[in-house]
Amino acid sequence: MLHAFSISASGMTAERVRMDTIANNLANANTTRTPEGGPYRRQVPVFAAREWPSWQRMGFAGAGVRVVAIREDPGPFRLVYDPHHPDAGPDGYVRMPNVDVVREMVDLISATRAYEANVSAFNAAKTMAMRALDIGRA
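The chain above was modelled as a monomer; its predicted structure follows.
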């Protein structure tokens, strides 16, 4: 029963990281200067399956998910013509972040739904555990 709690919690943690990353992307959607130089690059979390040690497996290997990295999206920057912008090049174009606000909002909805699904699974496991305890009392 405790495995279900751990698996659901790992999913909630991973989706929270995903939502935090999306929020950071949205906050920097118009950032043209970074400490590294150039415009902000969209960030994407990378998930990997988590496995139990062999001595803890109970007929299945799955143990949830973990965030292994947060990588920069190598996609091209957007070019916007704005010759009065302080970061405009000699041709008048400004390199803008490769953040697509619509895509980020769709990803945010997906992350929110996945988080809610993990909460539901956690609550279902909790209900089952409570009912099992009730059986023991009777």
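The radius of gyration is 22 Å.
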